[in-house]
């Protein structure tokens, strides 16, 4: 029956990603996916171990897609222009694909994504933008965490319709990203702070 439905790991992953965008990653179940293919739940277990594997595969797929969007956006740019391109691509993807984006926020064990370079690529893209600001560790990690926290927080509130104010969301977003650029240019170096 599974062969007639054309079940493959890739098709299951794509269907799970599409369903996640519709209903949320937490509502993606084996039963819901099986129904979408017109097969019984048991048919899935010859292709995937279970729901956890499907969610991991969606997280990897979404991270690959995000990396592609961000990589294209920042190519040939640096400084504030690169930061803006990175931020806009990140936000655009997250708002367009809410379920997939939520999957990228799942806590994964390194063994669960062994054999893929996708998460290393995410770090690489972030550091490519950060290189302009010439930050050393631990400042580089702290600054990268600030960016991720700001982007994720803003997008989460925006997606939930939480910005109920006459001020346009776009104006706030661009002002925040511009302010992050200014902050990064004047980042207080840990080494300098420790000397003082």
TrEMBL record:
Annotated InterPro entries: Homeodomain-like_sf (IPR009057), HTH_TetR (IPR001647), MT1864/Rv1816-like_C (IPR025996), Tet_transcr_reg_TetR-rel_C_sf (IPR036271)
Pfam families per record: TetR_C_33 (PF13305), TetR_N (PF00440)
Domain HTH tetR-type: 6-66
Positions of the DNA-binding region: 29-48
Keyword Transcription: yes
Keywords from the UniProt entry: DNA-binding, Transcription, Transcription regulation
Protein's UniProt name: WHG domain-containing protein
Organism annotation: Kitasatospora cathayae
